[in-house]
Amino acid sequence: MKKTLHIPAKINLYLDIVGRMANGYHELETVMQSVDLADTVTVSAEKGTGRIALSVEGEALGSLPAEKNTAYRAAERFRATVPTAHAVWDETLSLSDCDLFLTVQKGIPSESGLGGASADAAAVLLLLSEMFSPALSRAELEAIGAGIGADVPFCLHGGTVLARGIGERMTDLSPLPELPVLIAVPNGEKISTAEAFAAWDRKPVRNESRLTDFLLALSEDVSSADRHGFNVFESLLPDGSCVPALLSAFRETGALFARMSGSGPSVFGIFRSEEDRKKAEARLSGLATLYPCRLQKR
Predict the structure, then answer these.
(1) Is the pTM of this model over 0.90?
(2) CATH of region 180-294
(3) 197-221 residue pLDDT tens
(4) Of the chain's two ends, which shows fewer C-beta atoms within 10 Å, N or C?
């Protein structure tokens, strides 16, 4: 049995750290948005001994062991959480008896602030649920996903969402128009999410919250929201980062909204038209690897 899913990336329209929780995690306020840049994830199940195998296509798996990959961890966590589920195509075949083969075809650049790893985990959870336990609700899957990574619940949910806590407390916002987007990932620049949070711990950025004003502006139009947009990690960038120059370039080429996504280093611009986006592509060509896409509704 084999199933495949295209799972979209996310961008952060707003991102702030508002404190630390009792469990030590950073407490976030963020507005996340799906875009139609996607990874393709395939799960195959065969009768076997319960092993899990992972292959990643489109980029090297690198030094990270397969067992540390979020897609692999999602399969492990699903199996531990739903140990008695039975495959829908053969009620004599339980999940624990299956070998699972996971294939990830990368379309979302890794370690770029676009949630690619979380998207892969979400795809595995969605596919395993469809294959083995279709009665599981989306809320139940989101609860499983929260134990894997902060962005996994959103990647299961999608659309335009206000998320709090570590990202698990979500509120749907009015969907945005499916406007053109250009994502720019600086060539050769990597920013570790763990290091970005550690930089905040060393020098906490505490500003008066802009969230209320941002949400009000976003309900009017994307351009108005840009004036109230915020990403706390933009003030914690390492010396020599290309992000400020890319943000300036986006605004100079007429982006309605421009921001860094997540802890970076990807930067995105939202445009009024395809023509405007193509002008930005011409301007930014050679400065970064570019990914044209669109905002995506849930």
Answers:
(1) yes
(2) 3.30.70.890
(3) 999 999 887 778 899 999 999 999 9
(4) C
